[in-house]
UniProtKB/TrEMBL annotation:
This is DUF2268 domain-containing putative Zn-dependent protease. InterPro entries: DUF2268 (IPR018728). Residues 155-290 form the DUF2268 domain. GO terms for molecular function: peptidase activity. One of its GO terms (biological process) is proteolysis. The lineage of its organism: Bacteria, Pseudomonadati, Bacteroidota, Flavobacteriia, Flavobacteriales. Keywords: Hydrolase, Protease. Pfam families: DUF2268. It comes from Robiginitalea aurantiaca.
Length: 316
């Protein structure tokens, strides 16, 4: 069985962070090539809501979560559990710590038919930007209230507690993660894995995240990290210089560009997403053949050459 193993960092990070650390395959997966065949799978959400209702009268939280949610998991939930070591204990603790987020889920499930239509329309819009895209299914999951979205060999894995009351956020997440899948397909899986596996690869990771952000902007007119983009554009010259300097440092200051900042008064999270977006946009804007430029963005496997070609830092 062919397996695409796109493993995301397991530290508590924003829902939009899609950081691939490991990828092992023998061949590219074979998923539908038409948006009409794309599937939104939410059986895990339905199972969780059964468990959630049962907990109103059954005090054995761990048993209920295990039997009604974990034991009935889809392929998407099984993959998520494997990656993030999700347990009933972690779920219980998250539900106790953030009951208001889980309380949003019944209303979210009540609207699932409308969300399915939004998803279908979104896939059509995606196909106008990338006509030859591949469409693995998207799984809506319930996790331990961590904002995680990622691509995987079984499909996109999206936890819904964070975006349950924010449909634009959910749409951007779906597109961003699907764009990452197209990057992996366009580059070839070994090259894609190598980009994330090697050390001191801040530039490559920012370009990959920025590439997914750029595709998201073409589909939806917005990116996931709007606060980071606004922050950079307020003093772009200074941030460009800081980025270039950090690329030369040992460790490359990855926490600043790709980490979560607990004190957001200093700067927004995930600045590297927005910096990568700016570089990708510069490359696309200067290109005369936009279709070819978009394929170059998806296939980018030499970060230094790509940045030079973009011209983004020519006038720092």
């Amino acid at each position: 069985m062919n397996t695409l193993n796109l493993l995301k960092n397991t530290t508590p990070i924003l829902w939009g962070l899609c950081l691939f650390l490991c990828l092992k395959v023998s061949a590219q997966p074979n998923y539908p090539r038409t948006p009409a065949e794309a599937n939104l799978i939410y059986s895990d959400l339905e199972h969780f809501m059964e468990a959630y209702a049962e907990l109103a009268t059954n005090p054995d939280t761990l048993q209920v979560l295990q039997t009604l949610y974990f034991d009935r998991g889809s392929e998407g939930l099984k993959e998520y559990i494997r990656r993030h070591k999700l347990t009933p204990e972690l779920m219980r603790d998250a539900m106790l710590a953030n009951p208001e987020r889980y309380a949003l889920l019944p209303a979210f499930l009540d609207k699932i038919s409308a969300i399915e239509q939004v998803y279908k329309d979104l896939m059509k819009d995606f196909s106008t930007v990338l006509p030859n895209a591949m469409y693995p299914p998207t799984y809506l999951l319930v996790g331990a209230n961590r904002g995680i979205g990622q691509a995987s060999g079984v499909g996109q894995l999206i936890t819904v507690t964070r975006p349950a009351d924010n449909l634009p956020k959910l749409k951007k997440l779906m597109v961003h993660e699907l764009a990452h899948f197209q990057e992996a397909m366009a580059m070839g899986l070994p090259k894609y894995a190598a980009l994330y596996a090697k050390p001191d690869n801040l530039l490559g990771m920012c370009l990959r995240e920025g590439g997914a952000e750029f595709v998201t902007s073409l589909v939806l007119g917005d990116i996931t990290q709007t606060e980071a983009l606004e922050f950079i554009e307020e003093d772009e010259k200074q941030l460009k210089n800081e980025f270039l300097k950090d690329l030369e440092k040992e460790g490359q200051n990855r926490d600043y560009w790709l980490g979560v900042n607990t004190d957001k008064s200093k700067h927004p999270n995930l600045l590297g997403y927005a910096m990568g977006y700016k570089i990708n946009k510069a490359y696309y804007d200067m290109a005369t053949d936009k279709a070819a430029a978009l394929q170059d963005i998806l296939r980018m496997d030499d970060a230094a050459v790509f940045v030079t070609s973009s011209g983004y830092f020519d006038n720092p």
